[in-house]
Design goal:
The structure is a single chain. The strands form 2 sheets. The protein has a 6-stranded mixed beta sheet with strand order 3-2-1-4-6-5, with helices on both faces. A 4-stranded antiparallel beta sheet has the order 7-10-9-8. The radius of gyration is 24 Å and the shape is elongated. It has 12 helices and 10 strands. The chain has 2 domains: 221 residues, 3-Layer(aba) Sandwich (Rossmann fold); 78 residues, 2-Layer Sandwich (Uridine Diphospho-n-acetylenolpyruvylglucosamine Reductase, domain 3), CATH 3.30.465.
Length: 357
């Protein structure tokens, strides 16, 4: 008799990601020291084709919640069968009393699953962008540091299809454009460091997998706190949508994310190819050539130019780009547009100049 369907589902999702990582790992060339021509052949280092790559290390980011505990259990089960080392890291945000004790408990549970190395990293959460964004920034910074310290090939994250649906709705509410509707990517981060195996699984499957394996889980009280936007959406917004529209809203939103991502990737590629053709010999953007482009492509070029000039990507919203776009499509002699990061955009002699003010 095989494992419970929920357990089988989470293991299959993790197995697929690990196979991808193993394929990428074996394709990467191994570093080989330079051999002196005076050394005898027997003492010279073998070529990269002769040296088997060392087993990769994959970490799981675990808060102790059902999603990440299910992910940790699946990684601990699947990794040894593929010759992959598996470890874990938990981040103590310090936002709740006893958070350090909670982190220590998570470390113990990960070690009991057989993961090694296991780290607990304490962070200080700032205020920039609001509490949720600040906690997220601190968390990813800690995960990046842990991955680099251990030389990990990848970090697995436990985001589910439900998380994806919430992300799409939040992007829709902000009016941030198709990239926000793309939700979370299955592969993201520098060099594809972050992998999300559960984006096609619902939250209930992960919880069920923990239950049938008798894995203790911790329900973060912040996830039920109406002070947080995502919490209100989870407990009020999505249930209201399902009541009004029927079941299947979460699945439909997740499909929207994938379709939007495909479109956004295509438009980003188009913009990257078009940008050199709309710059003059001095590197300035030519307004007439920009005007001839489709709006979706033109605005991507403008956004890239603003970020290159020093505007923080996280603070650069659609309304900023729309104002810059009017310098091209609705030119009436208006003045400069102030952007985040003290970047200024102005039209001068048929050219668009975007630079630090």
């Amino acid at each position: 008799m095989g494992p419970h369907p929920a357990v089988a589902a989470i293991r299959l999702a993790v197995r697929r990601v690990l196979h991808d990582l193993l394929t990428e790992h074996h394709r990467a060339p191994a570093a080989v020291p330079h051999a002196s021509p005076h050394e005898p052949p027997s003492s010279r280092p073998r070529s990269s084709r002769d040296v088997p790559p060392s087993p990769p290390l994959v970490l799981v980011a675990c808060s102790g919640g059902a999603d990440s505990m299910a992910l940790a259990s699946a990684l601990a089960f699947e990794a040894p069968k593929l010759g992959i080392r598996a470890g874990g890291v938990t981040v103590d945000h310090g936002l709740q009393t006893g958070s350090d004790l909670r982190a220590a408990e998570v470390v113990q549970r990960l070690r009991e699953l057989g993961l090694d190395p296991v780290d607990s990293v304490a962070v200080t959460v700032g205020r920039a962008g609001g509490p949720e964004a600040a906690a997220r920034d601190a968390r990813y910074c800690a995960l990046d540091t842990a991955a680099e310290r251990h030389g990990a090939t990848a970090v697995l994250l436990g985001h589910t299809r439900d998380d994806q649906a919430e992300t799409v709705l939040l992007g829709l509410a902000r009016g941030s454009g198709i990239r926000s509707l793309s939700g979370m990517a299955a592969v993201s981060g520098a060099g594809g460091r972050y992998r999300r195996p559960f984006l096609e699984l619902d939250r209930q499957t992960a919880r069920k997998a923990c239950m049938v394996q008798s894995l203790p889980v911790w329900d973060d009280p912040h996830n039920a706190d109406p002070a947080y936007t995502r919490s209100r959406l989870r407990h009020e917004g999505l249930p209201a949508l399902e009541k009004a529209l029927g079941k299947g809203v979460v699945e439909a939103l997740a499909r929207t994310a994938q379709l939007s991502r495909d479109d956004a990737d295509a438009l980003d590629s188009w913009a990257g190819q078009a940008e050199p053709t709309v710059r003059d010999a001095a590197g300035f953007l030519e307004c007439a050539k920009l005007y001839a482009l489709p709006p979706a492509v033109r605005r991507r070029i403008l956004r890239r130019a603003a970020i290159a000039a020093g505007a923080p990507a996280g603070s650069l919203f659609a309304r900023h780009i729309e104002e810059v776009d009017r310098l091209i499509t609705g030119w009436r002699g208006q003045g400069a547009i102030n952007l985040p990061g003290k970047v200024v955009a102005r039209r001068q002699g048929g050219r668009l100049v975007i630079r630090q003010g």
